[in-house]
Specification:
Length: about 375
């Protein structure tokens, strides 16, 4: 597959150009997710190499015990079986999801978005060529070219047994899958990530982390959207004005919440409360003020997508409290949310960032793409 991807660069980029010609040029986040260039192909090849070099995750002993009655019991990792992933925009998922499932001894059904159809079809052709070279059935990696109605019908009455579905996209997609699926669904949740600036936060460090989290890649689910600043921070008013200027300089649209009315010049518009729940996926951020770390934790747990949250503080005790009490898959102390990524966290290629608490939370890499099975060895044992 590595060789096939490398030798088909021109064909892949040409197919991607057909998709790009149809996209909305005002949607920068979509463009970031959709584009395939030589760099993107390099990252696809890197993902395949990383997974190839990882240890086989199947048939690993989790635990083993011999009971007093002589029964020997092993708990070992096992393949899921058939995994379906539903995703939007990103052709690189066609590579990462498939290579992970293949290595984990599972079949995968790829339901990519219509906006990347030409790119995805070529990439699946590459997969099938690789499988055929090793006399393996091509239906191990299957692309489902379905519209919304056909997808709904497939979820309600699948033509084959499904063991796990991973919807990777916005809230509407996730709700759609949860409504119709008949098997286990692992949620790759929305972002809407928060930063809380504590009253002792080091300001230059805070600005650097904030800008990276907000602007480094706006299309990512780990991008920053909301900022809560403690009103007791030194030079509170001037720091609010400083934030406004910094975001303006970096071309980030800023929504100032009404909690900042005492320091924001008159005429500045205040957003409605429901905006706290919105994932922007754009050069937009929202700032609000809180009286305490407890208020910040309460707001984050109420409004965020449960993905990634940051506290900026020099107080270890405050950081510990925040990280223990904020209900997110990843919690950060003085670091950007952009690190919530399989490669950045040492997991390697990922299927998704799970915001579920079962079966796994956080980057869903190769080791997490298995279930388990008990092997019980006896010699005519019967239970009394």
């Amino acid at each position: 597959m590595i060789k096939i991807l490398d030798s088909n660069r021109a064909k892949i980029i040409e197919a991607n150009k057909k998709d790009l010609d149809l996209y909305d040029p005002t949607d920068r986040a979509m463009y970031d997710r959709l584009i395939v260039d030589d760099y993107k192909i390099d990252t696809m090849i890197k993902a395949v190499k990383e997974v190839k070099d990882q240890e086989d995750p199947v048939d690993k002993i989790i635990s083993e015990i011999e009971l007093e009655n002589g029964l020997k019991i092993q708990n070992k990792t096992a393949p899921f079986g058939t995994i379906m992933i539903i995703y939007e925009s990103r052709p690189d998922v066609t590579i990462e999801a498939a290579v992970l499932a293949f290595k984990a001894n599972s079949k995968i059904l790829l339901k990519g978005g219509k906006e990347a159809i030409n790119s995805n079809l070529v990439l699946v052709e590459c997969w099938h060529e690789a499988l055929e070279k090793h006399d393996l059935p091509t239906d191990l990696i299957t692309f489902l070219n379905m519209n919304r109605i056909q997808t709904q019908e497939f979820l309600i009455a699948p033509t084959e047994k499904l063991d796990l579905i991973v919807p990777r996209g916005g809230e509407k997609l996730i709700a759609f899958v949860k409504e119709h699926a008949k098997c286990a669904v692992l949620i790759s949740g929305r972002g809407n990530n928060f930063m809380y600036i504590h009253d002792d936060a080091e300001w230059e460090k805070t600005i650097e982390v904030m800008l990276n989290a907000k602007t480094q890649k706006i299309s990512a689910c780990n991008a920053l959207d909301k900022i809560l600043i403690n009103k007791n921070i030194d030079q509170y008013s001037s720091k609010i004005q400083n934030l406004r200027q910094i975001f303006m300089t970096n071309k980030v649209e800023l929504a100032m919440h009404s909690s900042l009315a005492d320091v924001v010049p008159s005429g500045n518009s205040f957003e409605k409360e429901e905006v706290w729940e919105e994932e922007f996926l754009s050069m937009k951020a929202m700032i609000g003020a809180v009286e305490s770390i407890d208020e910040a934790i309460e707001m984050i747990n109420m409004y965020s997508g449960g993905h990634s949250s940051i506290i900026m503080t020099e107080k270890t005790k405050a950081a510990k409290k925040f990280m223990e009490q904020v209900d997110s898959a990843a919690v950060y102390h003085n670091a950007s949310t952009r690190f919530t990524d399989g490669g950045q966290m040492g997991v390697g290629a990922e299927l998704a960032i799970s915001t579920d608490k079962l079966h796994h939370r956080g980057p869903l890499g190769l080791e997490q793409l298995v279930t388990n099975k008990y092997y019980v060895f006896g010699d005519g044992h019967v239970r009394d």
